[in-house]
Automatic annotation (TrEMBL):
This is ArsR family transcriptional regulator. Residues 1-95 form the HTH arsR-type domain. The lineage of its organism: Bacteria, Pseudomonadati, Bacteroidota, Flavobacteriia, Flavobacteriales. One of its GO terms (molecular function) is cadmium ion sensor activity. One of its GO terms (biological process) is response to cadmium ion. It comes from the Bacteria. CDD domains: HTH_ARSR.
Length: 229
């Protein structure tokens, strides 16, 4: 027990550092970055960044991959990304934000990526619609695809049986930090974003985590989920 408490305390200490928390937050766009890029985002020296990265790799929070002359850093697993996004829900929203009734379509809180799945207002709306249409059911912190859901996903070219073979969480709840409600995460959430991009329902905004819902996407979501975006 003491060993577990010690390791837990160590992880909490690593994540709680200001510079490291900034690095982890910036990695939520799902892309890998070099130490130089992460140093710029955290506004610290390259040497200091290297030290921080080494600690997080040792703690299995981050992983590094060498490609050519560069080393690229990313989360060690999707579960780490889930923890970082969930932590943001503990941050109280500003008074200015709470006055915003309808975020603009290009606003960060409206539609964005959370690691490799859809988050923000749109992500929550899609998830709720999947539940309302009996495509997904909630079981504790996870989502279960119904028999009708398997057919629905198949119609948009997603094979849920193949996705279940992946060595990661299939479909779980991720607490959206801006909406304070859950959206779909895991391998199924990642596949949904991937197919929506492939079908041009959604486009990624360059150099940003923001997502753009296309006119094709708005029509498709209305046809498939009776969802107005």
């Amino acid at each position: 027990m003491e060993e577990f408490e010690s390791k837990f305390s160590q992880i909490a200490s690593i994540i709680g550092d200001k510079a490291r928390s900034v690095i982890l937050w910036n990695l939520l766009d799902g892309r890998a970055y070099t130490a130089t890029e992460l140093a710029t985002s955290a506004n610290i020296s390259l040497q200091s960044t290297s030290n921080h990265l080494s600690k997080m790799i040792k703690a299995n929070i981050l992983s590094v991959e060498k490609q050519g002359r560069h080393r690229y850093y990313n989360y060690a697993s999707a579960e780490v990304a889930q923890v970082i996004e969930s932590m943001a829900s503990l941050v109280p929203l500003s008074e200015a934000y709470t006055k915003i009734k309808k975020p603009k379509a290009n606003d960060f809180t409206y539609a964005r990526t959370c690691y490799d799945h859809i988050a923000g207002c749109v992500g929550v709306k899609i998830t709720n619609s999947l539940i309302d249409h009996k495509i997904l059911e909630i079981s504790e912190k996870k989502y279960i695809v119904t028999d009708y859901g398997k057919e629905w996903f198949q119609k948009i070219d997603i094979d849920t049986n193949l996705i279940k073979l992946q060595k990661r969480s299939f479909a779980h709840q991720c607490l959206d930090w801006s909406e304070r409600k859950h959206h779909l995460a895991g391998a199924l959430g990642a596949s949904l974003l991937e197919i929506m991009i492939k079908k041009d329902w959604i486009r990624k905004k360059k150099n940003s985590r923001e997502l753009i819902i296309t006119s094709i996407g708005k029509t498709a979501l209305k046809d498939t989920l009776n969802l107005e975006i």
